[in-house]
């Protein structure tokens, strides 16, 4: 018995040393799921996905876990340069350095999201529908995956797309599409919508009830849980913690929705928190935040290297991607019930 215990202790100790050695030896070689996060937010894939740049979406992870897509502004925001869609993929056990997706890099592209089967990516863009189109409308676009890469983008079309804005989309496991769209008569003329997929075709979108699209609070970035049991939304609302908070609406068995439940100070800060998302396996919560780790004053003079180390890393006041265990939402559901 003692020998077995000693052997187990040895393997446990060796495993810890190996993990630490790998982490220290090559920080660029990471696996976002090798050391999963705990119950408090932390940078997601720091230095590779979460960087000094302004990340502008949650990451979308392919169902088989071998590719991650997200959008970001690589130039200073005041330059008005377009956001681009970036990706990294796992090759021979290692994650590649980020590259601009083959279908991005020219227009203002945002919010890539894998379909549940991983065969398509939906993103939203104000790219022209036809040459010479200057409407500037934001539509949802699609690229198809093949053995040689991604297709050219094509417009999702009606009945989803229409005049104005369509984007901030996500999928339930059955393909049901949730998204934000222009809707006259609703607060700031936008509303959270849903479209069921029947025989491979999206149906006329329905605007979700006033429980979600209530007046007096701006809402954006809706994200539906894969099992459709709850909806995450960013928004401004009285009683919030900051510039924008993340809320959850729980879906009842009769397709009604709970009142909004603030995710609380574990997630939300006094700055802008948005773009919530849940991993394909339901275990992890992602979101973006502008919370900064910079100091307004220092206790001693800083040299150039020290200052640039702070300014060229996450937490510099631009939006960063965070992740954490999604168990917080389950605990809120229990308190809601």
How would you describe what is shown here?
This protein is mainly beta and 337 residues long. It has a single domain (51-336), classed as TolB, C-terminal domain (Neuraminidase). The strands form 6 sheets. Strands 2, 3, 4, 5, 6 and 7 form a 6-stranded antiparallel β-sheet that branches. Strands 8, 9, 10, 11 and 12 form a 5-stranded antiparallel β-sheet that branches. Strands 1-25-24-23 form a 4-stranded antiparallel β-sheet, with no helix packed on it. The chain is globular and about 60 Å long. β8 and β9 (120-125) form a beta hairpin. It contains 3 helices and 25 strands. The termini are far apart.
Name the features:
single chain; 337 residues; mainly beta; Neuraminidase; six-stranded antiparallel sheet; five-stranded antiparallel sheet; 3 helices; 25 strands; globular; disordered N terminus
Produce the secondary structure layout:
Elements: H1 2-25, E1 42-43, E2 54-55, E3 60-61, E4 67-73, E5 84-91, E6 94-95, E7 99-100, E8 109-114, E9 120-125, E10 139-146, E11 149-150, E12 154-155, E13 166-171, E14 177-182, E15 190-195, E16 197-198, E17 201-202, E18 206-207, E19 219-224, E20 230-235, E21 245-250, E22 261-262, E23 273-278, E24 284-289, H2 304-311, E25 320-325, H3 327-336
CATH fold naming? Neuraminidase
How does the overall form come out from the CA principal axes? globular
Low-confidence stretches: 1-30
Q: Characterize the main sheet.
A: 6 strands, antiparallel
Percent of residues in helical segments? 10-25%
Number of domains: 1
């Amino acid at each position: 018995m003692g020998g077995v215990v000693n052997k187990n202790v040895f393997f446990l100790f060796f495993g810890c040393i190996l993990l630490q050695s790998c982490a220290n030896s090559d920080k660029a070689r990471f696996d976002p799921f090798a050391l999963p996060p705990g119950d408090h937010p932390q940078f997601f894939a720091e230095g590779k996905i979460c960087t000094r740049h302004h990340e502008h979406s949650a990451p979308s992870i392919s169902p088989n876990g071998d590719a991650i897509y997200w959008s970001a502004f690589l130039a200073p925001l005041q330059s008005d340069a377009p956001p681009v869609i970036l990706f990294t993929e796992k090759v021979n056990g290692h994650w590649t350095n980020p590259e601009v997706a083959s279908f991005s890099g020219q227009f203002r592209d945002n919010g890539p999201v894998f379909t549940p089967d991983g065969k398509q990516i939906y993103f939203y863009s104000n790219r022209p529908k036809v040459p010479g189109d200057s409407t500037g409308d934001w539509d949802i676009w699609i690229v198809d995956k093949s053995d040689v890469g991604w297709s050219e983008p094509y417009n999702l079309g009606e009945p989803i797309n229409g005049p104005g804005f369509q984007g901030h989309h996500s999928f339930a496991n059955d393909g049901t599409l949730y998204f934000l769209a222009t809707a006259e008569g609703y607060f700031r003329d936008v509303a959270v919508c849903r479209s069921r997929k029947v025989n491979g075709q999206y149906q006329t979108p329905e605007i979700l009830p006033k429980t979600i699209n209530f007046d007096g609070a701006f809402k954006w970035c809706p994200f539906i849980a894969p099992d459709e049991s709850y909806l995450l939304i960013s928004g401004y609302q009285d009683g919030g913690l900051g510039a924008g908070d993340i809320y959850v609406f729980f879906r009842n068995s009769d397709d009604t929705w709970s009142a909004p439940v603030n995710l609380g100070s574990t997630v939300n800060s006094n700055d802008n928190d948005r773009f919530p998302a849940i991993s394909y396996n339901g275990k992890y919560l992602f979101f973006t935040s502008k919370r900064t780790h910079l100091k307004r004053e220092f206790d001693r003079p800083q040299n150039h290297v020290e200052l640039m180390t702070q300014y060229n890393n996450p937490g510099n006041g631009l939006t960063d991607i965070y992740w954490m265990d999604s168990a917080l939402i389950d605990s809120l559901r229990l308190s809601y019930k």
